[in-house]
Structure formats: C-alpha cells, structure tokens
What we know:
Radius of gyration: 30 Å
Largest sheet: 12 strands, antiparallel
Helix content: 25-40%
Number of strands: 12
Structural class: alpha+beta
Strand content: 35-45%
Amino acid sequence: MPEETVRQVSMTPYEIIATILAIIALIQPWIIAIWKKFFRPLKVTFIPSAKIKLYYNRSGAYIYLGGVIEAKNRSAVIKDISAKVIRQSDKAELVMDWSSFMVPVFQSIGGNAVTTSEIARSFMVSANGLNPIFVEFANTDTQLNDELNRIHEKIKLETRRICNINIPFDCAEQQQQEISEYQRFREELLENFYWKTSKYVIELSIHHSDDKTEICRYQFSLSQEETTEFKRNIDEAMLCELKMLYYQPVCFSIIQKDFAVLKNNASIVE
Length: 270
C-alpha cells in the first residue's frame, strides 16, 4: 500500500491575528454589557436646592430639604434617606428620618390650591437620570415625641375647658396663659428648644441598592435675632388648639437658610 502522507495545516500569523480580532469583535458587546451592568461603580449624588427650611411646631424641631438625586453609571433603588443635624456649640444632635415626599403638583379643588403628599417609601432612579425630591424629615426621638404629645394633650384638655362662646378670644387666651401648668410646660419647651444661636451641620445619609450609604454634609448658622423670632413658635404651638376653636389664624414662623457644602461632602459608608 502506498504510504499515506499526513499533511499538517498551519495558520499564518496574519490568519491568527484575524481570528483573534474576529473573536474579540464577537464577544465585545457582551463584555461591555456585563461591565456596564455589574462592574461600573454606582455613584448616587444629592444636589440640594438653594434653601433649607427649618421648622418648629407641636411636633418639635425638624427640617425640610428639596433637591434632585442623580444615579451615575447604573440605576439605583433609594431605600432610605435620613438626616442628622448637629449643633456645633454643644454637639447636640437632632436625628430624623424621612416622613413624606411633597409632590410638586398643585391641584385646584373647590377653587383652593392643594399640594398632595405621599408617605416616604423606596423609589428607583434611572441610570444617569435626575429625580426631584422634596423630603420632610421627622424626629426619631420617641422619648421626646412622647413628651411633646403629653404636654400638648394636657394643654388641649385645658383649652377645651376654657373655650366658651360667651368668652372673647383675648380673655380665653389670658385665662389659659395664667394656668400654672401652662407656664411650667412653656419653661420646659424653652429649655429643650433646639434651634439656638449657633452653627449647624447637616449630615444627609442616602441608603441605596448597593447596600452603601452616601453621606452629604452641609453647614448653616442661626443668629440671635432668628432664634428669638423662632422661639415665638412655642407660644403659637401652645395656643394652637385655642386659636382653631375660635377660628383664629395660626401662624408658625419658618426660617429659610442658605447653606454651604462642606469639603468632605461625598463620603461612603459600606
């Protein structure tokens, strides 16, 4: 039998390079898609509006902060937003969690302008998109909240006892302020009043879907004149029930403050 010769097929360097490039071109879209979905770092940024609103009423001290949230590179689920205000004069803290989103849509009901509100809950921010939020933060100190409720419930009972259609509002107001418990409660509220003359730092914590927390820091200050004006809300809160029974306007002062973004604004907690 004739001897069979085995011919080995070899590829030239040009053919090898062409084959490698063809394989890379084939899998490149998959590599890019996997990189974008799983490996590009997620960066969540809060861009605040120009003002921070400070409040004090029967719920105590709290803040209202508006702005937009941006998710860079990937979509993100915002699980929770909390805030901590630190009074720099004595390091006293006001710890708050989101309580509601104020929807920036105005409706006309019966000729009256109405702004709707929603209970705060998780929401999604699309990749490289901006989501406007208006967040009201509520105090999480249950002991303080219980004490405020106790004070204002007792005042409410006294108010309803005093209120009489035959007594003018000014006389009823004077009677209420002359009650010994009223003065004791007022002194207690003044002693625990949070918005004192000082510099303040706000730490805003945004917990998102990567189980990380972005912390943004801002600073503002309150003058003696602003604090004095703000303390009048204590009397307004204590007389709130009486004014409503007599159909008198209830006017709480709201302070809007400019703020500075601190240099160490963008820190991440795992």
